[in-house]
């Protein structure tokens, strides 16, 4: 970036002098036509008087501005759609993960034998039949919620 700025400042005076000097046309010894900002030494040349550029068209500028706004709006909409798609994919992955956990929990609770569960405090305990039934109901509810 700094190099571009440096080059710009170095070429800026040259651009001004070229614009002030005009444009010249000449033919070399081989008959090739040349154009340049400086007249050739020892050759006949013609100084060209170029017409200034036409004044800006306000309607064209307004059309360009409207086009730029439409493009920016489309880019924003595309980015929002991509974010929404990523959010939906993450939500679907989370639901699949929770579904697998709920199914695994229910399968464990329905398997025969005495169950040993881990409480919220991290201590293992043997649940009562009522606690076991509540755990099974919670697992079924989670399956209904997360599994399609």
Lateral strand order in the biggest sheet: 2-1-3
Can you count the beta strands? 5
Query: What is the rounded Rg?
Result: 39 Å
N-C termini distance: 54 Å
Q: Could you give a short account of the major beta sheet?
A: 3 strands, antiparallel
- Helical content stands at 55-70%
List SSEs in N-to-C order: HEEEHEEH
What percentage of the residues does DSSP assign to strands (E)? 5-15%
Q: Give the low-confidence spans.
A: 5-19
Silhouette: rod-shaped
Protein structure class: mainly alpha
Nearest-integer average pLDDT: 86
Number of helical segments?
Answer: 3
Give an overview of the whole structure.
By secondary structure, this protein is mostly helical. It contains 3 helices and 5 strands; from the N terminus they run H-E-E-E-H-E-E-H. The protein has helices at 2-21, 58-110, 129-146, and strands at residues 23-27, 33-36, 45-48, 117-118, 124-125. The strands form 2 sheets. Strands 2-1-3 form a 3-stranded antiparallel sheet. A two-stranded antiparallel ribbon has the order 4-5. Helix 2 (58-110) runs antiparallel to helix 3 (129-146). The chain is rod-shaped. It starts with a helix and ends with a helix. Residues 5-19 have low confidence and may be disordered.
């Amino acid at each position: 970036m700094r190099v571009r700025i440096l080059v710009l400042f170095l070429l800026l005076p040259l651009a001004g002098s070229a614009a002030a000097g005009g444009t010249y046309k000449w033919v070399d010894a081989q008959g090739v036509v040349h154009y340049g900002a400086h007249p050739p030494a020892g050759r006949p040349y013609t100084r060209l008087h170029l017409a200034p550029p036409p004044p800006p068209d306000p309607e064209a500028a307004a059309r360009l501005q409207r086009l730029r706004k439409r493009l920016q709006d489309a880019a924003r909409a595309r980015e929002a759609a991509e974010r929404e798609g990523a959010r939906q994919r993450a939500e679907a992955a989370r639901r699949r993960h929770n579904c697998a956990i709920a199914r695994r929990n229910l399968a464990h609770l329905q398997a025969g034998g005495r169950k040993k569960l881990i409480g919220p405090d991290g201590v293992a305990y043997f649940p009562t039949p009522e606690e076991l039934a509540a755990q099974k109901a919670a697992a079924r509810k989670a399956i209904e919620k997360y599994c399609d």
